[in-house]
Amino acid sequence: MTTTIDTLAPVSAPRPARRGHGWRSARSAIGTIPFFGYVAVFLIIPTAIVVIGAFRAPGGAFSWVNILALGDSTVIDAFVASVVLSAVTAAIGAVFGGLLAYVLVTGRPGSISRRIVTAVCSVLAQFGGVMLAFAFIATLGSAGMISNLLRDWLGVETTGAYLYTVPGLILVYTYFQIPLMVIVFLPAVDGIRAQWREATETLGGSTWVYWRRVAGPLLAPAFLGSLLLLFANAFSAYATAAALVTQSTPIVPLKISGAITNEVNVGHADLAKSLALGMVIIVAIVMWLYALLQKRTAKWLG
Amino acid sequence: MRVHRMRTAALAGIAALSMVVAACGSSGGTGTPSQSSSESSSSQSSQSSSSQQSSSSSGSGGSGSSADAKTATSASDFGGMDGLVAAAKKEGQLNVIALPPDWANYGAIIKAFSAKYGITVNSQNPNGSSAQEIEAAKTNAGTNTAPDVFDLGPAVALASTDMFAPYKVQAWADIPDANKEASGLWFNDYTGVMSVGYNKTKFGEITSLNDLLGAKFKGTFALNGNPTQAGAAFSGFVMVALANGGSPDNLQPGIDFFKKAKDAGTFIPIDPTPATIASGQTGVVIDWSYNQLSAAQQLKKQGVDWAMYVPDNAAVGSYYVQAINKGAPHPAAARLWEEFLYTPEAQNLYMAGGAQPVEFEAMKKAGTLDATAEASLPKTSSPIIQLTDAQQKAASTFLNSNWSKIAG
Questions:
Q1: Which value does ipTM take for this structure?
Q2: Is A12 inside a domain boundary?
Q3: pTM metric for this prediction
Q4: Which residues of B are less than 8 Å from A228 in CB distance?
Q5: Is A249 in CB contact (< 8 Å) with chain B?
Q6: Which of B66-70, B278-282, B299-303 has the lowest mean pLDDT?
Q7: Helix, coil or strand: residue A127
Q8: Is the pLDDT of residue B7 over 50?
Q9: In total, how many domains does chain A have?
């Protein structure tokens, strides 16, 4: 059991006491400049532009116009669709990816099948955008391979029209969500020792007790973290959706690009910023929920 | 050991992703890549044209005539067409922008102008957008490389009238009143006609939009773009609404029709491209007549007859707008270019490219329409309908809240 306790030690070890102040700590802070510079350029400044822009009228004066536009029913629909799309694909990815990771770990260590599956997953987890959209169109679109086979062999006509809507996006996103889950969750499952199960059984615990009291709590933080990663991954994905869904803007990233490039209804570019602000807020809420859960599981473990 | 290391890795990933979310939103504040490419292409042409410019300006002597040319509002200010031609020839150059050679036959029109007057035409950023034309005029203002003339979409044109110099071409009376600004700030040049292009070889003749609800069109009927976003798709939607008994102020019949086509499984929410047309994936496409014409020319090689159908009382158009840049570096050549565009010669060239020229009715009366070029236009039974600015705004609001039911 001592091993277990070591494993679960808090992430932040007690810091060594500060030796010396002044220039010495200033000098060591120099090393962080690239990091903070990077964060400023790619996170803080863009976020500031988005937040400030969301509260400005076209002339530059303070205005609630763009924020109030978020209450429009089509915008709310887009946020609902985005959250549902991200939550569903994250859940599907987490469950199936988690199971696959567990299956891989229970196999013979270093087996060829494990190496193949992890290699394939590392590739597929990054396989998105136009390529992925095209792969699905070429397979399931109206002139796709599967559609043609169905037509020629079974006489079943499919147009594949669902592919270009939100349900289609769920299918397509799942394609990279499951491998991503395997990649990020595998190390956690690897950390499970067969001896712990043996110990549980020795002490008279059933399989249920093992999962409920030992493996479950151990894996929960990593599982939730991965789930959140998958959610954010789907929530912010743009290229895949843009390549597939061209005739409407059902999800928020597409609405943002639509607000910028619209040539029928010109002059709504600032709506893009309030939409982006909405996305930042939703991710913040999800991360807050995650922190709550994390706290709970920590208590659970304690 | 790996468990907690994993936890921190996941958190780092989340932090990275929230950056992505934020950065994705910020793209609204920055320029598009295509804008920067337009800058680089115009700076290239600035080198070539400035060297040509120096040689031609040395021959022109004084700049007195060009100062007059800047404020000339018709050819009579030059003492007639001969005076205008002489002044333009002295300038020797013309900068045009965003005129793709295969778009409404602009390649042939530029060639004809150049050959007729011996004026070098510098074509900048041929695939640029209307907004980029205005942008180029602002950034290059006062230089030799600023565009002399514009060819703009109506929304951008109406928002940029302070950039235009008023001018009335000799054929001013042949342009219908609805197609010009009374003082000559801008005037329409040509329009596409919204039409249903289809593979006649495979599907036979289409005589009504209701044909498109039939089973043989399953999964093959497409609209060129998202009508809440793209001008062509918007006009296509209006055409469908009018053909089904709607009016510019009542577009509900358009939604009803697309709903029926969606339920019948014939309408498919994909963006038709030359590739999907060539592969047969989109066998029926609603798009501008000039785009249909180029599809037809491509498909002819495959032995496919790509035909055009325009429903009765639903010939929807959207005229492009000609205007002269107020700060045109070659003011006389700019005015000569406009004069040339409104001759039967250039108007017939537009028509040969599948676009309907603005002087169509006047030329019909005068008997100056070129019969071969006229055959490039889709057959229409009614005059061209164009939405007013107010109707367009109302229609886009209507579509915004209703189109998602079709392609959501």
A1: 0.74
A2: no
A3: 0.73
A4: 10, 14
A5: yes
A6: B66-70
A7: coil
A8: no
A9: 1
